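Weekly puzzle thread! Below is a chain. First person to post its structure in token form gets bragging rights.
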Amino acid sequence: MTAQALRVLAFAKKVVGTHQHSIDHQDVADDLVFLGLQGMIDPPRPEAIAAVRACQLAGIQVKMITGDHISTARAIAQRMGIQATETVQAFEGRSLSEMNDHRLAEVVEDGDVFARVAPAQKLRLVEALQSKGDIVAMTGDGVNDAPALKQADIGIAMAKAAPRSPAKLLTCC
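Winning reply:
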């Protein structure tokens, strides 16, 4: 399912006594009954695909940093045309954490997709590109993006306004 750009959720259940009114991690550590998997798609909008293409035509390298599973991220990047070559070069946060700064600078230059990335790793990716003399623009929509947005030469914080609420421009620097 991930290779088809689907986000996958697993479902399970566990019967507990009627006296139990809260759940802790330890309560679901065992005796779960697997119910199944669900695949959901959040397809890239046509305007997002067009924006990626416009950036590439302007000579801007586009890279994707996401919390998605690496296979899902790879498939989405393929659909959006993010890859620099025929094959999407993708790296997981777990492998990034084991890299020294020199190796990370090489990987970030060649990579198209960075999946399951922690906030500190987003910051390291921005710094790695800047260490090569690149001007880095980054978009983000959560508080976990703030350190990397602040470090980027151009940080674009995005949020969807609530219904009937005026849109707000967020800047960080």
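Puzzle host: Confirmed. Bonus trivia for everyone else. Strands lie at 6-13, 33-41, 64-66, 90-92, 113-115, 137-140, 154-157.
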